[in-house]
Amino acid sequence: MPRLNSHDDFTPLKEVIVGSAANYVGHDRDVSFELFHHENLTGFRSDWAYPRLTRTMAGHRESWAVKERYAEELHEDVEALAAVLAALGVAVLRPLPLPPDAAPIAGLGWEAAPTPALNIRDNTLILGGEIIEMPPAIRSRYLETRLLAPVFTRYWEAGARWTTMPRPTLTDTSFDLSYARDTATTLGGPTEAIDDPQPSP
């Protein structure tokens, strides 16, 4: 494996990590998911696309299934992208696939079904010869970069630096909901307000 050496977006691509959509069957709808997507939904009735969480759901999660047809098409498209890049002579590295029976991720007072390492650049930053694992913002993606550990280990063994940013606790009271409460821009927003927010440990 060559040394990690990524400095721009315009020199010829020699090696790339392409994510995996294997066993991507759904998402947990919790406060972390709602707030992460909040800004992308500004300007229209977000609760039409993403039904609102209610106060009764505080501390709980709701599973949101991805239709089997969409999951299959996504998997097919990602695999085709990897094949095209390989056919062009690019070395294509892949994360471990998410096991079909993956156990939930558990944190301090929360639990979430894991998602596959599909969008690698969401939680990973490559700067020159350094891998930086970014702190996850969605509970279901809390351990996603562990699926990339074999790839990262090979780069590290070849001389790359490997840094993992501190992971947040992601408890219900860890989130600042103030910007999501502005009814002028979000028509109610995707989340119900926490009446008495308290700082988490």
Give your account of this protein's structure.
The chain contains 6 helices and 9 strands. The chain has 201 residues and is an alpha/beta fold. The chain has one domain (15-186): 5-stranded Propeller (L-arginine/glycine Amidinotransferase, Chain A). The strands form 4 sheets. The chain has a 3-stranded mixed sheet with strand order 7-8-9. A two-stranded parallel ribbon has the order 1-4. A hairpin with a 4-residue loop joins strand 5 and strand 6. The longest helix has 20 residues, at 68-87. The model is unreliable at 44-58 and 183-191 (pLDDT under 50).
Secondary-structure map with pairings?
Blueprint: E1 15-17, E2 26-29, H1 31-38, H2 46-49, E3 62-65, H3 68-87, E4 91-93, E5 105-106, E6 111-112, H4 120-123, E7 124-127, E8 130-133, H5 149-157, E9 161-164, H6 183-186
Parallel strand pairs: 1-4, 8-9
Antiparallel strand pairs: 2-3, 5-6, 7-8
